[in-house]
């Protein structure tokens, strides 16, 4: 049910930036890029707009998220905060993104507790007194990484952000086709720098390669008997 309450032009723009940021960052990730629609039209019981991302049903319903997928979700949740800083500056930040930022903090801590972070990968004994602070520090590191990642995507897609925000202010909602058309015209969907998971995998592969070379050197060369 639509809420017909009036909003000032500044409020419409602020909400548009908030929702556009999530859509623009989300479309960069294969697992979140299926944007069904973006709206800033207020509905009963909900002050802000809404971005609908259609995910794989099995992945979503069964909670079968990969580590990279979790990092992508945190990045999308931090996108409104990053956009607020980029568009308005640190001195003019609002609390419009508080809900999604809180979800990102919770997700980052869950990622660490699940043993999915780089520092504590595969470790299960977290509930040790001297490790609890380390959990929070690792979650903060993940949040900082994802936040910078969101800012990078938004900066690369400044023209797309402006186009989506303008479209939302004029029409209040963008369909999937309308949004993807803007992505095609103005988007800069480029490969991002390696994530912490990519770096860890590459480091492990390099280590395995070096160990294999060392083991080969230790194998004695057999002599041929005549």
The coarse silhouette is elongated
Any idea what the CATH architecture is? Up-down Bundle
So what's the oligomer here? single chain
Order of helices and strands: HEEHHHHHEHH
Tally of individual domains = 1
- Overall residue-averaged pLDDT value: 81
- Percentage of residues in DSSP E strands: 5-15%
Largest sheet: 3 strands, antiparallel
Detail the poorly predicted runs. Answer: none
CATH topology: Methane Monooxygenase Hydroxylase, Chain G, domain 1
How are strands sequenced across the largest beta sheet?
2-1-3
Regarding CATH, which class? Mainly Alpha
Rg, alpha carbons:
22 Å
Assign a percent range to the helix content.
Answer: 55-70%
What does this structure look like?
There is one protein chain. This protein has 226 residues and is mainly alpha-helical. The chain has one domain: Peptidase M41 (Methane Monooxygenase Hydroxylase, Chain G, domain 1), CATH 1.20.58. 60% of the residues lie in helices and 5% in strands. The protein is built from eight helices and three strands. The protein has helices spanning 9-26, 57-62, 67-88, 98-113, 132-156, 158-171, 176-186, 196-218, and strands spanning 35-39, 50-53, 173-175. It has a three-stranded antiparallel beta sheet with strand order 2-1-3. Helix 6 (158-171) runs antiparallel to helix 7 (176-186). It is elongated. The termini are far apart.
